Amino acid sequence: MHPRNRWFIVCSLLYAVIGGGFGAVQAIAPGLLPGAPARAHGHIMLLGFVAMMIYGVALHTLPRFANRPLYSERLANLQLWAANIGLVLLVVGWLGYWKAVLFTGGTIAWAAMAVFAYNILRSVSARPAEEEGG
């Protein structure tokens, strides 16, 4: 497995623990966290835990199912950074109610999703190597 895909999975599991912590804090001491912690929790769990796990597993398996290499390792590496930076900015934006930070984080996180979609579509929609000859 490519180290980047492992990083997606490691990040996913870290976000699961962090997101669970946010949920526990909200249950035990509501109002302790500033801003909109429920929205921060939701983004940590969905974009952090769920999406990062999907990214890591899909980048490894889907090209193999299509019998092709991943279209672009560089795009996947960019996606790893963009997904994490975007999520952190979203969480900070929700906790501080800073609309500019929210917008920036959301835009970066969305761009990571778009890069993922493009990279996977280019990887799986190409004809397998043994079919290209004729």
From TrEMBL:
The keyword Membrane applies. Keywords: Membrane, Transmembrane, Transmembrane helix. InterPro entries: Cyt_c_oxase-like_su1_sf (IPR036927). It comes from the Bacteria. The chain crosses the membrane at residues 43-63, 75-95, 101-121. This is Cytochrome C and Quinol oxidase polypeptide I. It comes from Thiohalorhabdus methylotrophus. The lineage of its organism: Bacteria, Pseudomonadati, Pseudomonadota, Gammaproteobacteria, Thiohalorhabdales.
